[in-house]
Amino acid sequence: MNVQFDETQEMLRTAAREFLAESSTPKLVREMRKDEHGFSHDLWKAMAELGWQGLALPDRCGGSGMGFLDLCLLVEEMGRACLPSPFISTVAGCGLALADIGGEVADQWASDIASGQAVIVPALDGGPNSEGHHVLPTASSNGTDFVLNGTHLFVPYAGEACQFLCAAAESVQGEVRLFVLPSDTAGLTLTPLKGKADEPSFRLDLVDVHVDGAACVAAGETARAVMAATVLRMDIARCCDIVGALGWVLDDTVTYANERKQFGQTIGSFQSLQHYCADMHVMLDGLRTSAYFAAWQLGEGLDASRSGAIACAYAHRTVPQIVAIAHQIHGAMGVTEEHDLHLYTTRAIPSAHRILPLQDYLDAVIAP
Do residues 277 and 174 both lie within one domain? Predict the structure, then answer.
């Protein structure tokens, strides 16, 4: 991996930071967290005009054909600006998944994502059955069509999606299929889920949902491979988003320590606080490097499952530590919701970013 970014990548980062500094202000972030939509549609359109949604999509889908690392550098700047949007789920998740699948139907939806016309989110997690086991919805054959029944939990921005990339299985251990499912399909219902996450999340229930056979864009091993790649891409992108958020936290904390005075001098002159800030920097650098490496591997077509798991596991470890130090240095004002640090704390916590439990990633790291 070349650790030096090229001129195009540096221009992308600079342009994104300047645009988001003006467009994604703390005031907007607070407003969107209370808004029923969860993000600004006007800002989403402006991002599409800049070509962000199509940045890593191939030319045939109306994209720019840039690499996954380039996309993650852009996502990092979104995290730094605490941008509320379905970008990771729609672009890093569904957009690249549909481009991988290919074909007329999948390519058309990927093109609609690139143009900013479509918000498509993944429904891949499944839900508990009557026995408490986590399973995908069932897809029963009905001639050339299918009937879907079941539940998907934690579907992000589902209330604003026009389509879902929905996974279902013919039985508990049967063939997995991926469907592009319209949000207004009869029998599909959404229930908002309450939580600490900074993005709206929903429960998606399917009751006797009849789906045309043409809506099935992948099946069997192809569908399983696409699902695994989609989850991995979103995990790595979320790590880069967290890196951006923690970058702001570190900068803000250092600035505060250099301005806040106690005992007639700035608290940043105290050696113990200098050590705290140095620890934050070292931990953030480790997370940034591991996330970049995983993004580079994936973009080069290499197996990034282990490096992605390492980045996610490290995020689990470092995010609480970095955030705790930041709040400690800020003192009482740092724990108030009125301070911007609160926005970034809820942004950076891995559980709020739908990253899997730590043990899942540790198991992946040590797997043969």
Answer: no
Number of other residues whose CB lies within 10 A of the CB of residue 132: 6
Is 319 found in the same domain as 200? no
Helix (H, G, I), strand (E, B) or coil at 195: coil
**Which of 112, 97, 125, 141 lies closest to 53, judged by CA?**
112
**242 and 132: one domain?**
no
Domain boundary among the residues 171, 192, 221 is at 221
3-state secondary structure of 169: strand
Please check the confidence at residue 315 and state whether its pLDDT lies above 90. yes
Nearest to 159 by CA among 206, 116, 200, 205: 200
Predicted local distance difference test score (pLDDT) of residue 172: 58
- Give CA–CA dist 308/218, Å, rounded: 24
pTM value?
Answer: 0.94
Contact 277, 253 (CB under 8 A): yes
Question: Do 228 and 360 sit in the same domain of this protein?
Answer: yes
Kindly state whether residue 2 falls inside one of the protein's structural domains.
Answer: no
Give the separation between CA 197 and CA 215, rounded to whole angstroms.
31
CATH number of the domain residue 102 falls in: 1.10.540.10
123 to 103, 177, 201, 204, 293: CA distances (angstroms): 21, 12, 11, 8, 27
Q: Domain limits at 279?
A: 223-366
Grade residue 350 by pLDDT with cuts at 50, 70 and 90.
Answer: confident
Residue 73 pLDDT exceeds 70: yes
Residue 137 carries which DSSP code?
A: P
Mean pLDDT value across the chain = 93
Instruction: Identify each DSSP E strand in the chain by its residue range.
Output: 120-123, 127-128, 134-135, 138-142, 145-156, 163-169, 176-182, 188-193, 201-211, 216-219, 261-262, 265-266
Kindly state whether residues 227 and 215 are assigned to the same domain. Answer: no
